[in-house]
Structure formats: structure tokens, C-alpha cells
Amino acid sequence: MSDLHKEKWEACLKVIKDNISLQAFKTWFSPIVPVKIEGDNLTIQVPSHFFYEWLEEHYIGLLKKVIKKELGPNGRLEYSIVMENNTSNSTPYTVKLPASNLSSVKNAPVNVPLTSNESQIRNPFIIPGLKKVNVESNLNPAYSFENFVEGDCNRLARSAGFAVANKPGGTAFNPLLIYGGVGLGKTHLAHAIGIGIKNQFPNKTVLYVGSEKFAHQFIDAIQNGTTNDFIHFYQMMDVLIIDDVQFFSGKEKTQDVFFHIFNHLHQNGKQIILTSDKPPVEMQNMEQRLLSRFKWGLSADLQAPDLETRIAILEKKMYGNGIDLPREVVEYLAYSINTNIREMEGALTSLIAQASLNKKAITLDLARQMIDKFVKNTAREVSIEYIQKVVCDYFDLEIEILKSKTRKREVVQARQIAMFFSKKMTKSSLANIGAHCGGKDHATVLHACRTVSNLSDTDKQFKIYLSDLEKRLSMQ
Ligand code: ADP
Ligand code: MG
Fold first, then answer.
1. Which is the closest atom of ligand 1 to the Cα of 316?
2. Pocket around ligand 1 at a 6 A CB cut-off
3. Quick one: fold of 384-475?
4. Distance CA 205, CA 190 (A)
């Protein structure tokens, strides 16, 4: 095989070198290996898809020019890309890039023999003199996997996190993006991964940082003229955890610098863990190239936990604090606060504080009073049983009678009202509501709901009943 491809590429490099900074040249051109030349087609091998994208974004004008100069007006460039993710069976694939139309990129069959392996490509980022020592990881030991209760709501995110903790940078989950609403455990899980890694690989440099802090550090670095140090510091990490990346939205410069750091880490097989309050598709004012990278690995969401998981979380927390609460209180807490774990834990903490300050036993009543004050604005889960109980208390009926098949007028009415509120305030199906109210079918429940709403339009006293009950139910 002739060495024409090498010669041609060498000639290209000469021109390129004169046109860009040395650092850029080392970073983006030294690792390239010329593979072959066929007619007017020169194939070069690049270490990753990311690398190829980077060339395309930043150097395409230059590349076009030099290719035309060295190969003639019909000169074309093709890329052979070494598969990423550090799997041992990495196969290269080819992206054909006609130098005249670089926006249409297609994957072509794998047909390019590898002429070198990745390990021969030297790392252009290694900065002499910078040692990986004494980086404070900022991990909170309380936020461990052991303290993280598993449930349907977090199964995927938790197990992906666990996999990452056991093999940082060595799974397909890079970056691992954990997203979900406020107080659902993103920060906890992110720490747990970091702790897991530190436990198993004490020599790895792990850093947890909130995105706000990152952004502030960056601004300081700009002001102090130490941007390079800032970048080098972050590029030194084996594992970088950035919490709440949605905070980067609208901050172009910060996104830009993070993009560089991300690229460097990812390309060197370092693990990146991100959290966000929303999935990448919903992030606003975030650069497309950054969003596309967020999607490279795995985006796993945290849902609001179900009742059992909430109870388990409270129990774990009590156990951790050496506290024992009556089961009914725990259930009540878990039942009443269902959208935010932090809020639920907060309620538990203030309940305990209240009780010890006032030297009161923690009873269901105390819990009720407290929760009322604590979570005014939280949507609460109301159960059919609870509605039945409130309605029966109000009309002074036995709950068993309501659930029976009796046709007594006042019972029928109370039953209908209970059905009405069950339909309105729970997510239960009509059939399920019927089953709870004396074994009625869904048509009966529907009829009851219509009757109640008609009556409330025509009967003043009835309307007062309803608004009284509604108040009681929403107060819990
Ligand atoms: P986020 O970062 O999503 O807003 P956090 O990670 O700060 O939420 O979690 C809020 C609180 O809830 C923390 O005290 C955390 O320990 C707790 N928590 C969340 N999920 C779980 C879980 N699955 N098991 C135990 N505690 C949890
Ligand atoms: Mg958080």
C-alpha cells in the first residue's frame, strides 16, 4: 500500500498548523490518523463521534480549503470513527463527508480497517505539573445508596446510578442525567453515586458541584483572568457531578465552558453525572449542541413515590434518627404529602420538634394540626375511605351503614355525596368508587354525581352541606 494518504494528510496538516493555535492543533488534529486515499477521497480516522462533530463545527471551512488545495477541486474527506463508550469490542464506523456538502452526513457501512488503536493517540490535554491530589469531593455521607429507598418511582435511575458507581466511565450511561421534580431525590442519588465510586475507587477524583456554584466560579475566573485554571481543574476530574444543570439555561458563556469540559471528560472516558428538574427536550435556552450531548448517555427520571415508598422513606429516616412514631402517624404523613419527599421529611422533623418542645406525645391529632400548617399548598391524596369518614362524621352516620345497601333516604343522600366527592377528589374509576359504596356499578355512581350537582343548584341547604364538607375535606 502506498503512503500517498499519509503524504497528502501531512501536506494538509502543514497548512492547518499555520492557521490555528498550537493548542487547538494538538487537540484536534494530532490525534487524527490518515487511513487511505481512493481517487479524490481521503479517509481519516478520528477517535470519537464527538471529535468528528467538533471538527465539523469548528474547522470545516479550513478543512474544505486544504482538501481542495491538496486533492483538487473534487477532493472529499471521509471520517472513520472509533466507536465510543470504551467497550473492548469497539468497531469503527464511517461517516462519509463530501467536503462540498458537509451538512448531509450519513452513516456508511463499516469497511475501513483500523490502522492504529486508540491507545496510541496521545492525550492532548495532559498538563504537566497538575497533579490529581486533594480535591474535596463535596459529598454528603448521609446521601448514600443505603439511605436511598428503592421504589417503582426511582428504579431505573437508581439502578443506572448503581451501575455507574460500579464502573464509572465504563457503562453506556455517560452522561447519566437524572431528572425529576423538586424534592424527589436527584441530589441524594447524585451523591450516592459519588460516594459509591469513592468507596470502591478511592484514587479516583470525584467532584460534586452545584451548577450555581460552577457558574459563579466561572465568573470569578473570568474576572481574575484564571479561566484556564478553572477549565483545567474541571478537566482533571475522573467523575464530575453537576447538580441542577437547568440553572445553566440562558447563560451562554457558562454553557460554552461547560461544553468544553464535558467534551474533554467524555472523550477521555471520564464519568459525567448531571441532574436537572426537567428532561433535555424541555430545557429552555440551552444550546442545542449541549442538549444533544446530554442525550448521549441515559436520561432517567425520578417520579413521585407511591405510598409504600413514602412510608419506607419515613421509616428509614426515623430509624436513622432513633425515633419511633405510631404507625398511624407515619401513614398519615405519607398519605398527606405525596409530591415532595423533602417536604414530607420536613413535616416529620417539625412534628418531632413540636412534640419535644411541648412535651406532647405524637398523636394523629398533633400530626393533623401540624400538617395543616406545614403544607398548605401541597396537593394531598384523599382516599375514598377518608371521604366516607368525613361525610359520615358530618351527618352523624355509621360508616358501615353508608357502605351497606340500605335505601334509607338520609343514607342514600350521604352515600351519593361521598360518591360525588370521590369522583371529584380522587383518581378512582367510577366502578371502584361504586365498589366502595355498597357495591354499586359505575352507572349508579354517575347518576349519584349528577343528582348531587343538580341538587346543589336547586337546594340551598344542600349547597351549604356541600361547601361545609368540601372545606373539611380540603383541610384534612
Ligand atoms: P431533589 O434534589 O430532587 O430536589 P433531594 O435529593 O434533595 O431532592 O431529596 C430531598 C430529600 O428527600 C432528601 O432529604 C433525600 O434524602 C430524601 N429522599 C429523596 N428520595 C429518597 C429515597 N428514595 N429514599 C430516601 N430518601 C429520599
Ligand atoms: Mg437537588
1. 25
2. 143, 147-149, 154, 180, 182-188, 313, 316, 341-342, 345
3. Chromosomal Replication Initiator Protein Dnaa; Chain: A; (1.10.1750)
4. 15
Where does CATH 1.10.1750.10 sit in the chain? 384-475
Q: Look up the pTM and report it.
A: 0.58
State the DSSP H helix or E strand holding residue 145, giving kind and residue range, or none if neither: none
Going by CA atoms, what residue is nearest to atom 16 of ligand 1? 188
60-71 and 4-19 helices cross at what angle (nearest 10)?
A: 130
Q: Locate all alpha helices (DSSP H) within 152-287, ordered by sequence.
A: 155-166, 186-200, 211-224, 227-235, 252-267
Distance 202 CA to ligand 1 centre (A): 25
pLDDT by residue for the chain (476 residues), tens only, comes to 678 999 999 999 999 999 887 767 877 898 899 999 998 889 998 877 767 877 887 888 899 899 999 999 888 888 887 654 443 333 445 544 433 333 333 333 323 333 333 333 333 343 333 444 468 999 999 999 999 999 999 999 999 999 999 999 999 999 999 999 999 999 999 999 999 999 999 999 999 999 999 999 999 999 999 999 999 999 999 999 999 999 999 999 999 999 999 999 999 999 999 999 999 989 999 999 999 999 999 999 999 998 889 999 999 998 887 888 888 888 888 888 888 899 899 888 888 888 878 888 888 888 888 877 666 544 555 788 889 999 999 999 999 998 888 889 889 999 999 999 998 887 677 888 888 888 888 889 989 999 999 999 999 999 999 999 988 887 65
The CATH number of the structural domain formed by 134-302 is: 3.40.50.300
Beta partners for 299?
177
Phi, psi of 76 (to 5 degrees): -135, 155
Query: Pocket of ligand 1, candidates 177, 182, 188: which has the most ligand atoms within 8 Å of its Cβ, to mutate?
Result: 188
Nearest-angstrom CA–CA distance, 431 and 391: 20
What is 4-100's CATH number?
A: 3.30.300.180
Alpha-carbon distance 218 to 228, whole Å?
10
Residue type, 355: A
Pick the CATH number of 307-374 from 2.30.110.20, 1.10.8.60, 3.40.640.10, 3.40.50.80: 1.10.8.60
Q: Whose CA is nearest to atom 1 of ligand 1?
A: 183
